[in-house]
Amino acid sequence: MATCGAMLGPFLDAYHSAFGVLEYNHPIKKVLWGSSEEFAALTTAWWVPELFALAAFLIGWLYILLDNILLEQKTRPLLNDTLIGISLFSFQYWLSGILFYSEVSRDYILTLMSLLAIGGFWALDGTIAGFLTSSATAIGGPAIEVGLLWLSSQGWDSGYHYNDTGETGYLPLWACAVYFLGGPANGNLARWFWNRLTDEEVRKKVERCPACNDTRCVLCPNCDGVGAYEAMGGISVDCTSCNGRGFVICRACFDQYDEDPYDIEAIREVVSRMPD
Q1: Of 11, 54, 80, 250, which is least surrounded by CB within 10 A?
Q2: Domain coordinates of the chain in residue numbers?
Q3: CB 138 within 8 A of CB 110
Q4: Which of 122, 120, 130, 136 shows the shortest CA–CA distance to 181?
Q5: Beta bridge partners of 217
Q6: Which of 89-98, 138-147, 202-211 has the lowest mean pLDDT?
Q7: Is the pLDDT of residue 273 over 80?
Q8: What is the 8-class DSSP label of residue 271?
Q9: CB atoms < 10 A from the CB of 35, how many?
Q10: 120, 112 contact by CB (below 8 A)
Q11: How many Cβ atoms sit within 10 Å of the Cβ of residue 91?
Q12: Which domain of life is it from (predicted)?
């Protein structure tokens, strides 16, 4: 999580630098992918990647910790939903910069960013653990920035400032809405990583099924694995139990896969994925 935050965070922050939302005293600029010096793809400071890395690490672990404490049910986001969340968070960063650059009113930006944050949260997360973490991010993130901005005002050489100090005297309130959406963007990624790691550990610990050796299939007992049997008159008939495949799904290891042995449609779906 820390690596992901350190890699993506500075590029998101660069949107705000490029569109004049904030300025660094001594920026590090990289003109990439056909960008210009004025709108450099990367404008950052030496401490920005570390800060985003720490944020991603803390948000991710808060999600996992609260998921386990609150026994959340929606903790297995699909990879597509996870990527959509990161994309929406990136879009929100970009849009807020564009709106500021276009001299849109502060209240309008706050309203739009808040709607995006709330809508994105309910669409991509909607859990109590996520709400608590996102709320903490929306409060804690700006609070850390206020500390950094205060240091900058005291002469910190590597500091920065917002060009619109907003309602707080340090930064505009709409930044809180941007921070809030960082909750599900980081949290669902952490959940996805966590599920991949824990599923692999569980898979390694589960003993092999003695009946099928984890192949999920056994020889059809009706046709002895042949796929057909000889009927009256010496006629060869496809076995109706296995549809001529010679094997059926193993019923000895359903519990290992949390599957219902009486769910016929689910069984057919599993068998359909098995090679002939």
Answers
A1: 80
A2: 2-205, 217-272
A3: no
A4: 120
A5: 249
A6: 202-211
A7: no
A8: H
A9: 16
A10: no
A11: 14
A12: Eukaryota
d(CA 154, CA 148): 10
- The pair of three-digit structure tokens given for residue 97, joined into one six-digit string: 């910069």
Confidence of residue 34 (pLDDT cuts 50, 70, 90): low
Residue pLDDT, tens place only, 228-248: 878 777 788 888 888 888 888
The amino acid that residue 246 corresponds to is G
pLDDT tens column, 123-170: 999 999 999 999 999 999 999 999 999 999 998 989 999 999 989 899
Burial of 17 (0-12, 13-18, 19+ CB in 10 A): buried
Q: What residues form DSSP beta bridges with 229? A: 237
- Assess whether pLDDT exceeds 90 at residue 187: yes
Can you say whether the dihedral through the CA atoms of 6, 9, 13, 18 is positive or negative? positive
- Range 50-86 burial, b when 16+ CB lie within 10 A, else e: ebbbbbbbbbbebbbebbeeeebeebebeeeebebbb
Tell the residue number behind the tokens 């898979």, with chain if given: 203
Query: Two tokens at 272?
Result: 């359909």
Percentage of residues in the chain with pLDDT exceeding 90?
54
Residue at 37: amino acid letter? E
Residue 184 to residues 1, 59, 127, 134, 206, Cα–Cα distance (Å):
13, 9, 10, 7, 31
Q: How far apart are CA 87 and CA 66, in angstroms?
A: 24
Q: Phi/psi of residue 32, each to 5°?
A: -125, 155
Hey, what amino acid is at 104? V
